Amino acid sequence: AMRAALVGYSSSEEEEEEEKEKEEEAAAGGRRGGSSQAPPSARWVRRERAGPGEERAAFLLILLLLGPCSAARPRLPAPAGLPGDPEPEEAVANDSSRHGGRVRGFPHERGSWATHIYLPCRVQEEFLELLELLVSHARTYVSSLAAMEDFHLSLSQCVVLRYHWIDPFVHSLKARLAPFHRFFCVADQVKVYTNQNKTRTFIGLEVSAGHFQLLELVSEVDRVLEEFDLPTFYKDPSFHISLAWCIGDLSGRLEGQCLRDLQDIVDGFEDSALLLRVQWEQIRCKSGNKYFSFPLR
Questions:
Q1: Residues 200, 102: contact at Cβ < 8 Å?
Q2: N or C: which end of the chain has fewer CB within 10 A?
Q3: What is the distance between the alpha carbons of residues 89 and 98, in angstroms, rounded to a whole number?
Q4: Quick one: which H or E segment has residue 82?
Q5: Of the residues 108, 116, 137, 152, which is catalytic?
Q6: Is the pTM above the cut of 0.70?
Q7: What is the rounded CA–CA span in Å between residue 73 and residue 47?
Q8: Is 164 among the residues known to form the active site?
Q9: Other CB atoms closer than 10 Å to residue 278's CB: what's the count?
Q10: Percentages of the chain per state (helix, strand, coil), in multiples of 5
Q11: Which residue intervals make up region (Disordered) (predicted)?
């Protein structure tokens, strides 16, 4: 049997300890066997000498047998939610079957958080009616089109942010965006877009009024991105709200006659001028599964 000592023992203490261990071994039914390994658990017991003239106290580590050394014990689960660990949605992000066939623009790496800055758009019931008309007609050209479920206007590309950069990044964003006031945009021009690697096609409503204010916001967001050596937004961006998407580059089918039809639907929709006038009230940053909001004044 192995013994760990906190202090030096006299020979009488060692003998006493050996007797104690033998008694415990017998009480355990000899479960230790012939193993010379230390048992998997132990507890501290304080023992003091009795009698007058005692000069010191000793703390002994008594190794208690709670089971045979060879017995397999269940391994404790790894702690969850450690900084930099992929979130459940990120850990399977490379499985395109889980995302309607979409492919990531960059490979997921442990501790890397996909980050995006945008203006969230709250829509009215009438907007969803217009969306249904547009998607139904566009599906006669591309049957695989899917309607978006939430709506936004991007102020940045999707960039990769390290976990330990998130707090200073958000702090810098908050400081630079603090002076901005709420403003309106008009998004009423139907456009067809593809992403950079041509793996997805979108139908969107491009902004026709409010472009200057958006450029001012992007300028400040770009400064923050530059601080962290991240890619800035596109040159001469086409600000838009995406309405529907499909896999692959199918822009050729959607442009031309389809696009003209869609614009006619928008122009002829009741109260479309009022419906497509959007007030922006906040800016949002999504990093991994974390959301940060910056209210406009």
A1: yes
A2: C
A3: 10
A4: none
A5: 152
A6: no
A7: 31
A8: no
A9: 22
A10: 30, 25, 45
A11: 1-49, 77-101
